[in-house]
Amino acid sequence: MSRWMILLAATAAAQTPDIVVREGLKKDCLGCHGEGQVLAKLDLRTREAMLRGGSRGPALTPGDASASLLYRVVAGVGPVAMPPVGKADAEFVAALKTWIDRGAAWPSASVSAGKWSNYKEEDLWAFRPLRKEFRESSIDGFLDRALAAKGVTAAKPADRRTLLRRATIDLTGLPPTAAELDAFERDASPRAWESAVDRLLASLRYGERWGRHWLDVARYADTSGYSNDFERPNAWRYRDYVIRSFNNDKPYDRFIREQVAGDELFPGDPEALIATGFLRAGPWEHTGMAVEAVTRQMFLDDVTHGVGAAFLGLTLGCARCHDHKFDPLPTKDYYRMQAIFATTEFARPAVPFLDSENTAGLAAGKARMEAIAGRNQTHMDHFNDIAVENAMKKHGVARREDLPKAVLQKAMREKEGIGPAEFEEFKLYQKHSQLYKESLDRYEPKAFAVSSGPLDGATDGGPNLKYPKHADYTPSEVHVLPGGNVQSPAEKVEPGVLELVERYSGLPSPEIPRDIGGRRAALANWIADPRHPLTARVMVNRVWQYHFGRGLAADANNFGKMGAKPANPELLDWLAARFMEDGWSVKKLHRRILLSAAYRRSSRPAAGAREKDPDNRLLSHFSPRRIEAEVFRDAVLAAAGELSPDAGGPGTFPQINEDVARQPQHRMGSLAPAYRASAKKRDRNRRTVYTFQQRTLADPMIEVFNGPSPDFSCERREATIVPTQAFTLLNSSLVNDMALALAVKAGSVERVFEMALARKPSAEEARMAAAHRDRMTAEHEAHPPAPRKPEEPLVHKITSELTGEIYQFRQETDPEPYEPNLDPSEVPAPTLALADVALALLNSNEFAYVY
To answer: What letter does residue 280 receive in the DSSP assignment?
Structure first.
């Protein structure tokens, strides 16, 4: 018998009778006495609660089952018989008697935890140590052996143009230029492909592409979501930190430590402090009507699940209400992990801007926002003046100064004498003032970060949450919450990590400090330990997924039982081992993958491959895939020569569909300011990763092409096909404006092909495109476009929560003059016709897919 079989047998033997008791309580008792309801005031979730008892007195008399009410009612000899329907299992009754007679020692795990022997070996693959020895020494060795075993022939290598376009989009998120493709085709040197890969990895565009992948996992956004959707004015610094980290090839273990505990592990390092914005990336809000304990629990749940998904590939959130149904994750372990973050508080400390950060537009941006906020304050002052004048008339005084201070304050607070419509308008300006105050902070040298305990003068609970001073701070205790209900705490837990890691991999669980500081540092070091069975596997799998469209394990955020098993587990382990040997270098991992024959294969499968491997799990050929939403938008801008080179800094506001931009955005009790696209083309045409990510107002183009929800960790982008995608590409103002810009710059059919598809048209394509151009020229000459109309004032309506009446408001315009795109009425008919050709190319599969 193996060592593990002996251990599992010993564990199973030790589970009787206390495990039977726990299972019986869970099955027959807790539904009425602890989980969701507590009938007869009897809670059976903890030993203490049993001793305390309910309306009939104590339920437990340790050492004497015959005197214990719990045993008597379950055995059918008490004042009532339980459970109310049917009888308890005889095994449960016998075990309960033995357990009580032995002293009723309550186990440290939750009620149904502890059955470690119930899990199949194949479901524990991710928790076992990495393999030490391998039969192969290259990616192709593993894959070719799997292909041979199934009798599948690999596809031929892709042609050079297809390969370079594939790699360029994979590594930079932008299509290659015609010049880059031509140069690669002409390069006859034996290291041509290696040189091309190295060039792409050295590009600053690489970090923007791969930073976006990580921001998907981290659920990044520039706002908090929920009813107010307040701005997170300094979150952009975390976004830029992620991009810099990928560009600088920061070792992944350091990347982990900085995001989980940068403030504790690297005090004084501003980069590491900014990195802790990861822990706050999820949606969160505290309103004036919220219960602080509830909103605090929202954060603790979010950060526990977020860390588990991003770094460990585990669905920890499934153990929030009860033991995980499929993985060895007892609820108690979930709350032990959560206790690590019990001392983690929101902070917005002053952190000077780094030399690597783009601060060029901060002064101008601040001046613009100050002008907007100042204009809003003028409106508020107007209503205050009216209230004061009414108070002066009421009290018969001629000057404001003659009013008693209390009277003056009451008049301004209650807006005395102002009608319902005026008061509703004042509320709007008041809400805008609150929003603008947050927006102004985006230009200040502060970090969207966390701390261990609150920081005096730098806590950041948002506009509605007030923190105690550091000297008064006492971290709250963490209890198991059956059903996830914060109002029904069960046993207290101390901070700790997941028992399953030590049990199945042998990596010792660290001692987590009970003090305020150091908890996250211990957690970060545990996650980044090279002996951890999950960490390297999860990251390697993510990188593989983004190159091949699917990970070796298909569910990147779920390495548990319900996640798909690895198609080639030995290859996954080999890559993870090499990843760590290479100093946790993500760029070296890319290089290893892209230099493989598997990556360079054609998308045309060899004969018989589809029949033997219909899902291409063996990777006999490259699976074509559609480019992601951000790549689509960036590629359209790049093809038109309109993509801004600017990088970093506060998020800018892109051009979006007018019907969405002009729709009212409700905020708690009022309306938000209208959406304003950035005035300068250079700002609004930046790469999508640098645009302002608002949780309650997604860019329609990103949304329709399966952009990620910022509320959940996105492990993989889907690629649905729906009619609105075609409508977006054919009819959206952005794509049509860029098609026109492309036509103006190109001037000919051949040049349009070169700019849009980075190649010359074939003779047949040139003939068809010219014919289409000629037809559309006649059409535009017969029906010329009307000149651009001046923008109409934007009027929004709202139903008052006080009166039920409908009121309307005229939204303010942007004080900065808007730089419009070229209008169709400003160019001749042949150019408009050429733009129609360009639009068709931007809608082609060749533009939209990687092959």
So the answer is: G
